[in-house]
Design brief:
Length: 103
């Protein structure tokens, strides 16, 4: 599923981000159609919202080092999956983002 414009505005708190997972491939590299049970859970998504950041013990806010539109790789079983208006989203902590994909 490609990222879409959302009707629902999601504003994460703290150092969390909201992302829209990229749909996994439905066919193998050799062209074999994979049933849902054989497909790997995706670990790639596009960030659609970013929280304000983490607060230090002194009350200072350290901003999240990610931005809306970043394509990222994240930990396999991280975050909370939600579905709003028929679209699936994942809310994860910044620390669960492993890499930003640059193309």
């Amino acid at each position: 599923m490609a990222p879409t414009a959302t009707k629902v505005e999601l504003k994460p708190t703290g150092e969390r981000v909201v992302l829209e997972p990229v749909e996994p491939a439905k066919t193998s590299a050799g062209g074999i159609i994979l049933p849902d049970t054989a497909q790997e859970k995706t670990q790639e998504g596009v960030i659609i919202a970013v929280g304000p950041g983490r607060k230090t013990d002194k009350g200072e806010v350290i901003p999240v080092d990610l931005k809306v539109g970043d394509k990222v790789i994240y930990s396999k079983y991280s975050g909370s999956e939600i579905k709003l208006d028929g679209t699936e989203y994942l809310i994860i902590s910044e620390k669960d983002v492993l890499a930003v994909v640059k193309r």
